[in-house]
Each structure stands twice: as structure tokens, then as C-alpha cells.
């Protein structure tokens, strides 16, 4: 069995244990699967935490107190080796389907079903999670209870579907040659955007993206930015406003970046 398959089995067991736990038992699960000094990167207001107890107190206990009957609905599940430090990662993306029974982060409970969009990156060493990047769309939860804290988004925010090809959950090993092709495409895209940063060309032509993106691409941005469909709409509704609003843009690398099959993922900026 490959190291990627072993790591996938570990994370699937971890996810199963999370789903069977509650706010009183979740700490035992985290301590079992995480190293004592696990570095956890969360979105605000969770921020960076070290060790399973801190992660439990800051994120998981409040989460499981507010949300009941939590089901993880994965759309993407993959594993690979990050090129910057040869670390082994497993990534999951999708939604938690929950019953929103208690207030969360000051967001009033609905008493109804809610969908919490997430992306979860876990780095594994010696059978333990040693680093995690966890992202969840808090503003989407606010929208689902009728709270709109931001100005009208340029894109459209909704409950995003999984890949059109329905092949995002990769339980079996893929041909490494496919991952190499995928990474080459991703790296070219990142290099193209880095060049735009250097030239300060915030109104770049669509031909720049057409080198690496399909013309009918879909961008599923976080709530507040929203989704766009096709390269021209991505430029109009996200990229141009985003780039024009931020000056002195510099790309400093990623904490994690890898590919498996036709899928690639990354997170984190290195300073």
C-alpha cells in the first residue's frame, strides 16, 4: 500500500471518529490523531492554534455545541506530496450538513438544516497529523439565516456543487504522470499571475488565463466574493475588482501545494 493510501485511510478513520463524537468526547479524538504540537491554521476568528487541546477549545467544542447531527459531505478527497518540503498531505473539500440548533459565533440559530462549506488540509508524519489548514465559510452560514454583513458581491453566492465529473473523491492511487501534468498546469497559472503582479497589469487580457484555464471555467469563491462562470465573467466579477483594490501584490509561495490525478490544491502564503 502506498504512503498516500495509508494516509487516506488514516484521515478517513479520523473523519469517521469526528462524526461519531460530540462536544464532550471530541477532545479524545483530536488527541488520538493529532501530535501534541500540531500546528493548526484556521480562518478568523479561530486563527493559528497549537496542539489538539487548543484546537478543541477554540473550534471543535463550540462547533459541535452549535451544530448537531454533523455529516461531512465530501466533494474532493485527495493525497500527495507537497513540492516545497516533501511533506505528505491529505485534503478534503465539501460541506458539513448540520442541524443549526444553537448560536455560533454570534450567529443566531435557525433550528434548520445548514450547509457549512469547508476545505481541510492535513499533513501526516509517523501516523499523526502534525499540521492542518482548515477553512470554513462563516459568511455563508450568516447568509443562510438571513444576515448579509457585506456589500453586494460581484459574483453569486450559493451552496456550490461538487465537480461536474463526479470524480473528486480519489480513494485509489492515480498515475503519478497525471499529477505531474496537473502540477505543470497549476505552476504555469501561478507564474502567469506572478508576472501580472510584477507588471502591475490589473486589466490583463483573457488570453493570459486561456493558456491554463478552459473558457467555460467556474470560480467558486467564498461568500462575499461569490461564484463566476467563464473567463470574461471571472475577470469582470472577481479578478479585476480584486486586483485593482490591492496594490504592491507579491506572491510568496504556499505552505502546501500538490496534485493527484486531475486535481490540484494549495493553501497558505509563505512570507
From TrEMBL:
Species annotation: Colwellia maritima
Coiled-coil segments: none
Gene3D superfamilies, sorted: 3.10.450.50
InterPro entries: Cyclase_SnoaL-like, NTF2-like_dom_sf, SnoaL-like
Name of this protein: Nuclear transport factor 2 family protein
A Pfam cross-reference name: SnoaL_2
Residue intervals of the SnoaL-like domain: 13-131
Amino acid at each position: 500500500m502506498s504512503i498516500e493510501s495509508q494516509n487516506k485511510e488514516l484521515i478517513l478513520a479520523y473523519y469517521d471518529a469526528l462524526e461519531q463524537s460530540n462536544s464532550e468526547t471530541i477532545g479524545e479524538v483530536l488527541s488520538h490523531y493529532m501530535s501534541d504540537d500540531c500546528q493548526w491554521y484556521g480562518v478568523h476568528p479561530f486563527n493559528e492554534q497549537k496542539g489538539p487541546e487548543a484546537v478543541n477549545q477554540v473550534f471543535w467544542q463550540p462547533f459541535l455545541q452549535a451544530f448537531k447531527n454533523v455529516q461531512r459531505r465530501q466533494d474532493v478527497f485527495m493525497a500527495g506530496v507537497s513540492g516545497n518540503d516533501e511533506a505528505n498531505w491529505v485534503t478534503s473539500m465539501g460541506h458539513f450538513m448540520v442541524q443549526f440548533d444553537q448560536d455560533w459565533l454570534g450567529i443566531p440559530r435557525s433550528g434548520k438544516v445548514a450547509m457549512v462549506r469547508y476545505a481541510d488540509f492535513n499533513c501526516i508524519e509517523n501516523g499523526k497529523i502534525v499540521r492542518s489548514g482548515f477553512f470554513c465559510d462563516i459568511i455563508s452560514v450568516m447568509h443562510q439565516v438571513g444576515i448579509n454583513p457585506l456589500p453586494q458581491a460581484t459574483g453569486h453566492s450559493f451552496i456550490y456543487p461538487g465537480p461536474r465529473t463526479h470524480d473528486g473523491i480519489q480513494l485509489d492511487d492515480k498515475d503519478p504522470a497525471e499529477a505531474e501534468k496537473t502540477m505543470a498546469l497549476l505552476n504555469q497559472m501561478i507564474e502567469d499571475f506572478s508576472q501580472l503582479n510584477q507588471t502591475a497589469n490589473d486589466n490583463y487580457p483573457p488570453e493570459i488565463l486561456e493558456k491554463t484555464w478552459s473558457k467555460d471555467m467556474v470560480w467558486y469563491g467564498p461568500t462575499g466574493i461569490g461564484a463566476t462562470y467563464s473567463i470574461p465573467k471571472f475577470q469582470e466579477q472577481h479578478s479585476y475588482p480584486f486586483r485593482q483594490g490591492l496594490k504592491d501584490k507579491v506572491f510568496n509561495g504556499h505552505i502546501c501545494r500538490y496534485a493527484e490525478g486531475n486535481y490540484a490544491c494549495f493553501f497558505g502564503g509563505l512570507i
